[in-house]
Amino acid sequence: MMDKYKEIVDTYPKVKLMFDEPLSKYTHTLTGGPADVLAFPESVHQAQEMVQFANAHHMPVTVIGNASNLIVRDGGIRGLTMILTRMNKIHVRDNHTIIADAGAALIDVTKAAQKHSLTGVEFAAGIPGSVGGAVFMNAGAYGGDIDDVVTGAEVLTPDDQVIHLNHQQLDFGYRHCSVQDNHQIVLSATFALKIGIADKILKQMNHLNQLRASKQPLDLPSCGSVFKRPTGYFAGKLIHDAGLQGFQIGGAQVSTKHAGFIVNVDHATATNYLDVIAHVQKTVFDKFNVHLETEVRIIGDEPSQK
Fold this sequence. Notes:
This protein is an alpha+beta fold. The chain has helices at residues 6-11, 44-56, 106-115, 131-137, 167-170, 178-181, 198-215, 235-241, 270-288, and strands at 16-22, 34-40, 61-63, 70-72, 77-82, 90-93, 97-101, 118-119, 140-141, 144-145, 150-156, 162-166, 185-192, 194-195, 248-249, 252-254, 262-264, 297-299.
């Protein structure tokens, strides 16, 4: 361990900390450079302490959630990176409300809802992200969005204050909410659901998961849906019509099963992914005069910048 990291280890002995840790171990693409400091807080208090330490030492802070709809550049991430998957408690309250920690898997929230005969979040049964990432991105699928079911969230501000945001303050939009603009960290979210029939809920969840499995390349590493839906179009159809399915740079390939996905078929790098994305964007624009905006979050440094 390098001396420059000794202070954070000595100050927070109860927090799991790793140094110069390759983020390819955690991303769903299996790509990404190293994090200078990688922390796994287990409570709101620990997360708050991490941000306080980072602020005091002028370290940038990055949270990467479950890293399912994320590309980390090959140069990695400077400063402090936090993964909140150890903050994963899910509580069912008042017969129709679920409060879930940011690091809880969204799929586990849907399972808890089904177990308690709560309906409304079935659309998320196959979304592989965390609760925090789902709120951050206003995740959605099959006609449903987080916006429809989340009534509020507890967040950590850049100046390490814990505050509550109601639905209006979250200001949800398409794959967007105010947390992005204000550089806040989601700590937990409140889901307001309705009483339903457990068997019927399970049937719908299974149906949507079967649809997902039939259409998406779930057998290969990917970053999920790469592009936002352009107004009046479908990204996957544009990419398909541009003849780009199977296009490959390095180990990153436009999926032959679903053109809206880029899969890691042979030890891809993040740079391979970004080069494929740029080629797809240019080709689709040249052919159809439509700009594909990325839905996947792209963070970190280029290799030459470290």
